[in-house]
Amino acid sequence: MPLAASTDYPVLNVFWTIFEIFAFVLWFWLLFVILTDVFRSSDLSGWGKAGWTIFVIFLPVIGILTYLIVRGPSMHERSAQQARQQDEALRSYVQEAAGSTPSSADQLAKLADLRQRGVITSDEFEQQKTKVLSSQ
């Protein structure tokens, strides 16, 4: 008995279409990740980057698998390094935007705490308090 035509199994066609869409999206995602890693990598020369790009685009399955085998372990290191750099840039921007000098209220609170603990005398507290308020 011959195999039935594909129109006899519409559910199978739906699953096959879903699989094809998934594979297509997966291929584009891998292509994006690998090309991003290629151009992020500082240990590759321009010719190396061009070679990997051509290899991955024109021989996609072999190129992607080869790249993941050859350079896969260091992909995570480059990704983590870029994340650290972005984190440091964000932290420095936030610190710069917020200002690194403490406010006068913070300084007065610290002075009051020092006086209460007996580290400084009341006279020293008043002198420092005058200094903080005059700097405003």
From TrEMBL:
The Cardiolipin synthase N-terminal domain, residue ranges: 25-71
Transmembrane intervals: 12-35, 50-70
Location, primary (coarse class): membrane
Entry keyword set: Cell membrane, Membrane, Transmembrane, Transmembrane helix
Domain SHOCT: from-to ranges: 106-133
UniProt membrane topology term: Multi-pass membrane protein
GO cellular component: plasma membrane
Origin: domain of life: Bacteria
Location(s) in or outside the cell: Cell membrane
Name of the protein in question: SHOCT domain-containing protein
Organism for this UniProt entry: Trebonia kvetii
